[in-house]
Amino acid sequence: MAKLWKGRFSKELDERVNDFNSSISFDSAMYLEDITGSIAHVTMLGRQGIVTEEEAKKIASELAAIADDITEGRLAFDPEAEDIHMFVEEELTKRLGAPGKKLHTARSRNDQVAVDLRMYMRKRIDEIVGMLRKLVETLVGIAENNLETVMPGYTHLQRAQPITLAHHMMAYVEMFRRDMTRFFNCFELMNESPLGCGALATTTYPIDREYTAKMLGFDAPCANSLDGVSDRDYCVEFCSAAALTMTHLSRLSEEIIMWCSWEFKFVELDDAYATGSSIMPQKKNPDICELIRGKTGRTVGDLITLLTVLKGLPLAYNKDMQEDKEAVFDSADTLKQCLSIIVPMLKTARFIKENMLAAAKKGFINATDCADYLVGKGMPFRDAYAVVGALVAKCTEKGVGLDELPLEDFKASSELFDSDVYDAIDLIGCVKGRKAVGGPAPEAVAAHIEKIRSTVLKPWREEE
User: pTM of the prediction?
Assistant: First the structure.
């Protein structure tokens, strides 16, 4: 395919340079955005009298036909094309002749690719937010069914205090709620149109940037043409949000991996979402979670790639920016793939309540409540802390839990102890007593769930 810019050059491009320079292999993913942007541009050209109304309509109609042909598989991408923009323009010119050559009037590939990428990313954000909402719905559903499912809460991976499975799941809901907000913010910050910025300094043609911005669903045109073609902050913000979301998915996956082990056995994955061993017939492996944990590294790498590409670039456009798309596309694809598989995996998982309760009964996770009991009787907390620490040591020697210790042993440590201590250190009671906002008490978690249902799980954009 002949290069549209070849007039300045006396030699054909070396084939190796052509291959190195080409981006059609990955930017073809933006063909719908490219054609949509071109239709808006040529419609504006006709409206402004830069091309005739008849020519504008003819070009727009043929562009729509090209989009249909690509979508339906009647038109294949030419691997020799430099990029998706040149491919579409060349195809348009083949079909229309001279009128097709007018499409690029008052436009550069610099503003063209910038508007394509922003529109592409808007779609991906809409999809990802929708998938995150489904994940949050799934976690909320698990929480609603386990408001009184007692389990150990951990610090340093050591049993610490009693909580519920509902409380634990809602912690991840908060992580993914923040992730959704980050994607919302990315969408809003990037929703300005670079179309009309030209190569870097707009154009002398009487274009209407407000018209094309509105036609393409942007809030406004980019305020500065240099920034419009060279800004890739939104790519960094998108990859940052994706990497952090993947990090949260990885943390959840790590816990599921541990909980599937015989050392915990808090959860049993459905057979449809686990794999076996090639040599050990007893194995049931949480491969999905392990892959999510591994794929997180890809998205972190994508973020670092973009930051490294951008850190030394002068204004305005530089070819280095071609490296933005593969990182963005990979982050979006990886995150969507992981979200699509973790939701059904969680929905079909069976949480083993009796094992969680049995684990909660070990490790003295009611020790703080025992100390609080003494504080309620008038003992300073630090003194109560020391008394209960000594009781835990005694329990360890006897191989029993605090709730199994005879009352006389309690009284030997402090006369403040009475028979009501057993109510104070009952695991269910310990959980129900933590009614503070954000706590594990069933009523506190239920209030949290209601707040999430009335805010996070509501549609965020009118078209939804």
Answer: 0.91
